[in-house]
Here is the input.
Amino acid sequence: MACQYLRRLVDEIHTVVLATIGDDGYPHTCAVDMMLADRLGVYFLTARGKSLYSRLRATGRVSLTGVRGDTTMTSVAVTLIGDVEEVPERLGELLEANPYMYRIYPTEESRRALTAFRIVRGEGEFFDLSARPIVRDGFSFGGFGFEETGYSITDACDGCGACMESCPQSCIDTSTVPYRIVQGNCLRCGNCMESCPRDAVSAGRLP
Here is the structure.
């Protein structure tokens, strides 16, 4: 499942906003192209003279968000946090898979500044606002510990229906009591918990 979403990140979204933490303690963002995905992770490149390179080497961690769509309601998004490692031996593959880079760095001498990185372990979320109801799915790869969090309905539910009335995606299964939240369609807005008169909705790690 993770490989499917990493490939969509490369093929459909491609350009993401990637964040790293600087020496000043603040997050720094930049636009980065995701250039290749395989069973080992997802790859991008940068130049060794850039401040991004220094931050990647210093922390070894990144966070990113990529969105693709003409409007909000036709968009898909992937978010990801993870650990990176430098893999300069993969640079040639990234350049061949993304030939536009030869226009940015046109000579062999200019390309000497480039190096490749791989996000080798991580967890993320796929989000599709173009679907009705919306679709979301969590994933992890590379042995990264993954714990899905959200809202769930406990045995204190008496089936009053208040949560369903407040749910913007109508993603609560009312066929049995206690009701059940369909996690793959949930916005995580918290309306169900706020509206429940029995305090039967809990937030946190999903069972």
